[in-house]
Amino acid sequence: MEMTKFGKLAALGLALAIAAGCSSKGGDSAGEGAVDPNAGYGANTSGVDGNLAAEEAALRAITTFYFEYDSADLKPEAMRALDVHAKDLKGNGARVVLEGHADERGTREYNMALGERRASAVQRYLVLQGVSPAQLELVSYGEERPLVLGSSEESWAQNRRVELRK
Amino acid sequence: MRPSSQGYFWPVLWALTLHVLMFALLFVSFQFTPDLPPARPIVKATLVSLKSKSPAQVQTNQKIAGEAQKTAAQQYEAEQLEQKKADDKKLADAKKAEAMKKQAEAQKQAEAKKAEAQKAEAKKQAEIAKKKAADEAAKKKAAEDAKKKAAEEAKKKAAAEQARKKAAADAKKAAEDAKRKAQADAKAKALAELMSDEPQYQMDVGDDKDDEVTAGIDARIVQLVSEQWSRPPSARNGMSVTVLIEMLPSGQITNVSLVQSSGDAAFDQSAISAVKNVGRIHEMIEIDRATFERKYRKREMIFKPEDLSL
Amino acid sequence: MNIVKSLVLLALVWVGMVQAADPLVVSHGADRAIPIAVVPFGWQGGAMLPEDMAEVVGNDLRNSGYFEPIPRQNMLSMPTTAEGVFYRDWKALGAQYVLVGNVNPDGGRLSINYALFNVATEQQMLTGNVAGTQQQLRDMAHYISDQAFLKMTGIKGAFSTRLLYVTAENLATNNTRYTLQRADYDGARAVTLLQSREPILSPSFAADGKRIAYVSFEQKRPRIFIQHIDTGRREQVTNFEGLNGAPAFSPDGSRLAFVLSRDGNPEIYVMNLATRQLARVTNHFAIDTEPFWGADGQTIYFTSDRAGKPQIYRTNVNGGGAERVTFIGNYNANPKLSADGKTMVMVHRQDGYKVFQIAAFDLQTSRLKVLSQTTLDESPTVAPNGTMLTYATRQQGRGVLMLVSTNGRVRIPLPTAQGDVREPSWSPYLQ
Predict the structure, then answer these.
(1) Which terminus of chain B, N or C, has fewer Cβ atoms within 10 Å?
(2) Record: contact C31-B19, CB cut-off 8 A
(3) Minimal Cα–Cα distance from A17 to chain C, Å?
(4) Domain C34-153: what homologous superfamily?
(5) Can you list the alpha helix ranges (DSSP code H) found in chain B?
């Protein structure tokens, strides 16, 4: 138990570190997965100042969380949305499924594992916010259920994701 | 490849040993060895390979054989058959027609002679073979040597040694490899004299030329086989298989057999197929009969890839 | 004195041979495709046969990478029996081999006589007969190819083997039809073994060629099934939380290796199929997946990203340490071994590159050879004789299967049905 607790703390620490270092990292990661589908949401929400309820509603609407290539690290905008979902889940005790996905690059079974790793990252974050693990089920579809077809950076960026499904 | 100073020691020792062994055989083995006609075993191999051919092949052969003059001697028939096939091809080939015809006629004449006086011919052949075999041992590397002059000088010194037993002292003064050649020549010639009634000294130039020709033929055979060699996926650099090639004087390859397997059946087969698929070494007609018997009637070939990517 | 003379002569001939026995050394090969004439088969019946036998045989031999069939229009004659073969005709064309065949009606069945000739040696190498129904014409053609290939190369032919693969056809948004197909190795005669609205992946054969294992999402979760091809009978093998994936039969068919994430992250397990007893093979916080059995039934090769990027490792099936196998390239995954255990093919990304290709890797020398030239190549699978392999790639946005000869000479797309085609898996030799 101690070890898993430590692991969760470590994951949180890592997530925060990435959040902090994100702006400087942005330029470097241009090589793979340069397109960030979440970027638009972030701009919108920060633009609306003061109307907390509206911002929460906008974040609640975000149920798909995107990832960098071969990575399961949560992005800061994803964490903000997950904070809202965590609050809701703690309140209503509902069960949700976390569907992990990968882009088409790499082998199918490795991508199955990668999809699950991404779903696990979301699960760990929600549990750290106080959601019961029993409310969260993981399933990975690997690269089998792409959101967008095509072999471009744009398509791949949208397919590397975790979907929160009620 | 080999340093020339080492190049002659073992061949000479080998030749010496064998000749001594041969000499000893003269006194020992004839008591229990039947009197075999010299060329017989080789011809037998030819006939066996013909027999094993397919009905289609036999049919083709018979068609050609029907035109040919048959003789009582099986050997003659087999080689005549082979010759006839060569003639066939020659007719189709306008360019080489003239040269081939001459060649064929020369061979026909030789064979006719042989039929007339086979014993005499055999004796003659034997003597030529004998001389060439003896000289070959000594002269094998001479053709490759750029310094022919040094070799000639060494030979003279060798003759001197034979006469005066002072050659050793003289040879010491000469360059290291020249000395080796001198010793090789001297010993081989001494042996040749022992084995033959009339000592021969005048074959040198011809032999050098022979070696040049056979070096060219060797390279040609390797080239032809390389072109036919398709390696299986299991083949790796450094694997090695040795096969024995059996050939007719026309250059027709009659049999290929495994001598030393690589341990990989597909790899072995790839080597055998490569040789078989060459079919015929046309350049073999440039080789005189004695050299053919000595070097090409049966010849081993090692397949050892160095160019594979895995 | 005659005896003595003869002996001396014999001895000298022998000595001469020994002295001349400097063997010739061949150190290079052309690995060229050998020209073969596969003459259109004769047919002694009425209506035209539904299959062009010579074309099937010629394509088989070409696909191996060893042979190049001579175009029909160049043939000077078209014999159908041994008696009609005149070597001169074929020498003129540069043909190294000639294969002829003749199909005869035999009751309700068909009987084929065939013969193979070596033009250089002017020898008949092979003659035989094969019989079957009209529906088995392709089987008979592949059989003849197998016999001829063995005779010419010493390698057992793999033209009578089969492929499994998965198709995905997008019918509408959120409506995709997945099928599991079995076809001839050349993609012909595909048969649907399973159809589903949910993904199917990772099909593979057992060594008996009768059972297959795969992952199906039909229960909305990935679960492993074993299906008996002939009867269609299915059994669900796993029902664990999390990932259930990458099934692989042991060489003796008694065990199944696969991946489970029930302990928190993907690990490789082995199940005894008779007792259903489960044993964990790997134990690492990284991803361990895509197990493949070594021929010894003891070693398992697998993909792991324990060093940061996916690489191939091997371990004993009874556990213990894992040994890293690949060090060249920044992504190596999905290992498949050739039957002789010499070569491993895998998905490979070269250092400094972002494209995925298929590579062959020599397990002894660690030398590597890239076999494919496109950018999204995956799922390599090797013919049981190692001469050919098939992999999945994308062409104009569509998933297709490519067949390549191991020597790299042949690369052809396999004819396949609608939709995305993926995840080929080669059968063992079949009876």
Answers:
(1) N
(2) no
(3) 19
(4) TolB, N-terminal domain (3.40.50.10070)
(5) 4-7, 9-28, 40-51, 55-67, 74-92, 97-116, 118-139, 148-164, 167-173, 176-195, 204-228, 265-278, 289-291
